[in-house]
Design goal:
Epox_hydrolase-like; alpha/beta; Rossmann fold; signal; hydrolase activity; 9 strands; nine-stranded mixed beta sheet; Alpha/beta hydrolase; 16% strand; hydrolase
Length: 348
């Protein structure tokens, strides 16, 4: 009864916020449903139904088998502005090398459920992911996380150390505590107001400068439209609301203080032109200038993690698996094939 009352209050608050918030500028392009209905994935989408926090939820995921299995499983954890589909090239590289690949959409993202009332935490998402893998009979896996997925991969490895054979993080965020460094806090309502302004133009401009080091190619555009399409569709407010809750989780739950507790062999793949820092645009100029220094952050993190290998990509931004897939996948597969990985190296 209490939970139902809370849901009613939150629903009313969401409706009110939707009514008073400014509408996003009109633009052309595809419109997708709140669970990314209408956008095709590179493999059949499967569903994992479960209950959490009083909600009946579904986690969408890809389960892609290799033609010549090597007996190992790789789990791919996407970033905040990414989905299981954006791992398309990495899935092909891993399955081509014999790995079975599981790529979920986390709750609140893409083709998975977007509840109106959910307390997002990295431990909750890690628990959900572990439940999915348990349902598939997977006891141990290589865990690969990108961006926000790197924060989730860290939490997963801390919670389930025996379930992680190796840990890989591609330009993870959470390598610094933005609040402690001076980024002003925002309420969920403030995050929601920001998210309601999402358009393809804004996504593209941000990704060009941060993900791809100021460059743009035609093959980046489908991922812009994937995100923007949900904000053009009938579930725009629900998508923006869940995004606001997720940003609050990312900002308030740093993992940087726990890297020393990680036990698996860990690979850090870091594009050196990345400047990502959550909400740094709200910080004073002197604070903003100190944030998102990935060359420094990557090296500090590699020293903090007990068994870490750092590979740097000099010309890549936040998403080297998309910007420079050949170099990234070679570094990844070489490291996975090594019996005792080197401490640090740069790609040839």
């Amino acid at each position: 009864m209490l939970f139902r009352s809370i849901c009613v209050v939150l629903t009313a608050a969401l409706s009110m916020a939707s009514a008073v918030g400014q509408a996003a500028p009109a633009e052309g392009g595809p419109a997708y449903g709140p669970r990314l209905e209408g956008f095709d994935y590179p493999a059949p989408v499967k569903r994992f139904p479960f209950e959490s926090q009083g909600n009946a939820l579904e986690m969408a995921y890809l389960d892609v088998a290799p033609k010549q299995p090597n007996g190992q499983v790789a789990v791919l954890l996407h970033g905040k502005n990414f989905c299981a589909a954006t791992w398309e090239g990495t899935i092909a590289a891993l399955t081509g090398a014999g790995y079975r690949v599981i790529a979920p959409d986390q709750i609140g993202f893409c083709k998975s459920s977007k509840p109106q009332a959910y307390q997002y935490s990295f431990q909750q998402l890690a628990y959900n992911t572990h439940a999915l893998l348990t349902s598939l009979g997977i006891e141990q896996a290589i865990v690969i996380g990108h961006s926000t997925g790197g924060m989730l991969a860290t939490r997963y490895a801390l919670m389930y150390p025996k379930a992680v054979s190796r840990l890989v993080m591609i330009n993870p965020i959470g390598l610094e505590d933005w609040k402690a460094k001076g980024v002003p806090p925002m309420t969920v309502d403030q995050w929601f107001a920001r998210e309601k302004q999402t358009t393809a133009e804004r996504i593209r401009a941000y990704e060009r400068s941060t993900y791809y080091a100021g460059l743009w190619r035609a093959d980046y555009e489908p991922w812009v439209q994937m995100l923007a399409g949900m904000y053009r569709g009938p579930g725009r407010d629900l998508v923006a609301w869940n995004s606001a809750l997720l940003y609050d989780m990312i900002y308030t739950q740093p993992v940087v203080y726990e890297f020393g507790q990680l036990r698996p062999w860990t690979l850090l793949l870091i594009g050196q032109k990345d400047t990502t820092a959550i909400a740094k645009d709200t910080a004073p100029p002197e604070v903003r200038a100190r944030l998102g220094n990935y060359p420094e952050l990557g090296r500090v993190t590699a020293k903090a993690i007990p068994r870490a290998t750092l590979v740097e990509f000099p010309d890549a931004g936040h998403a080297p698996q998309i910007q420079d897939p050949d170099a990234l996948h070679k570094a990844l597969l070489d490291w996975l094939a090594s019996s005792e990985p080197p401490r640090t190296r740069r790609p040839d």
